[in-house]
Design a protein that fits this description.
two-stranded antiparallel sheet; alpha+beta; 10 helices
């Protein structure tokens, strides 16, 4: 098979970052600490496995018809780690009595709809890739992830984290890692890794806004709203509008995301702070979307999608590369000197990348 047709090596990404779980693992509450430690150890094992394997399978024939409808299958892992589990709902099936199954099914569909109707993309690989998901993964598993082939959702511990199917933007976030995998294939470390994370937050937020019919000024710009337990002092995992303000809790600590390059965090943890420094391009997107107004996926999202899929974004791109290419994408689609061009310049200048 032509190497250019091979699926890109997968990135193992979890929506709850390791720095947050590491903080909980040091809790005085032994149950919370043990649950976080088990999740960390499990994620580390999966991350290592993803580094030494690749997505296998034959790329679809170029002449094959591409469906305009999703092909969804949801499985029940039965609180085990063997994937995918028992098939419980397929495309077109009636809702089940399991809310996690139905939310996962709906979230897969919302993601498919945004990419198809907003950007003309047919599923994750733009060739009609079936969308599979497993719910009820492991015991008290405090995370959700895209493993290069499918979505996986834990039920949370019911204390600090709730069921990971409750937030459609989390579902969209993880599936967008698949889109990145099949397009720019951004390396998952340093600034390119933070861009990878930011892409998932951007399109995760757009999927939520699209499914709710929200304009940019109506959106909450939160990632994972509703996911934190009732005892947590916080509103979400991340805020694109105000990075660094999503939570400030005795167990979780304070949201460490910077909004500008002045707060850029240099660290060896979390692949060079990919979940932390993603706040900078996240905030740039929020500014662009707010400046342009209306439905954020129509212009701001289009520029980000063009940049991700245009072919010029290198796997090791840094923030400055993305800023330059996204401005060029705005000019190419909307012309120079217009509202889109001006919004891009304002946003990147505001976060220190003018």
């Amino acid at each position: 098979m032509d190497a250019s047709l091979r699926p890109a090596p997968p990135v193992f990404c979890t929506v709850v970052p390791p720095h947050l779980l590491d903080r909980i693992a040091r809790s005085r509450d032994t149950r919370r600490a043990d649950t976080a430690q088990r999740t960390l150890e499990h994620d580390a094992a999966l991350r290592t496995r993803r580094r030494v394997t690749t997505v296998r399978g034959v790329a679809p024939a170029l002449a094959a018809p591409v469906p305009d409808e999703p092909r969804r299958t949801v499985y029940d892992a039965g609180h085990r780690t063997r994937l995918p589990g028992t098939r419980v709902r397929g495309e077109g099936d009636e809702p089940t009595g399991d809310a996690s199954v139905n939310r996962a099914y709906a979230g897969l569909g919302a993601t498919y709809d945004l990419f198809l109707k907003g950007f003309g993309r047919h599923s994750i690989d733009d060739a009609g890739l079936p969308l599979d998901a497993s719910v009820h993964y492991d015991e008290d598993y405090d995370n959700a992830f895209w493993d290069g082939r499918q979505m996986v959702f834990g039920d949370g511990d019911g204390d600090l984290f709730l069921d990971f199917t409750v937030a459609v933007d989390v579902i969209g976030h993880e599936l967008t890692h698949g889109v990145t995998q099949y397009t720019a294939n951004l390396e998952y470390r340093g600034q390119s890794g933070a861009l990878n994370e930011s892409m998932s937050d951007v399109f995760g937020s757009l999927i939520k806004q699209y499914s709710l019919g929200q304009t940019a000024d109506q959106a909450d710009w939160l990632i994972g709203a509703g996911l934190l337990g009732p005892a947590v002092t916080g509103v979400a995992l991340r805020s694109m509008k105000a990075p660094g303000t999503a939570y400030d809790d005795d167990e979780l600590g304070k949201d460490p995301q910077p909004a500008t390059m002045d707060g850029y965090v240099t660290t060896h943890a979390d692949n060079g702070g990919v979940h932390i420094n993603s706040g900078i391009p996240n905030h740039a997107f929020y500014i662009v979307a707010s400046e342009l107004g209306g439905k954020a996926w129509e212009r701001a999202g289009r520029i980000w999608y063009d940049t991700l899929t245009g072919g010029a974004l290198a796997p090791d791109a840094d923030f400055a590369d993305f800023a330059r290419l996204s401005v060029a994408a705005a000019v190419a689609r909307y012309g120079e000197g217009g509202a889109e061009h001006q919004a891009m310049q304002k946003a990147w200048s505001a976060v220190g990348l003018g």
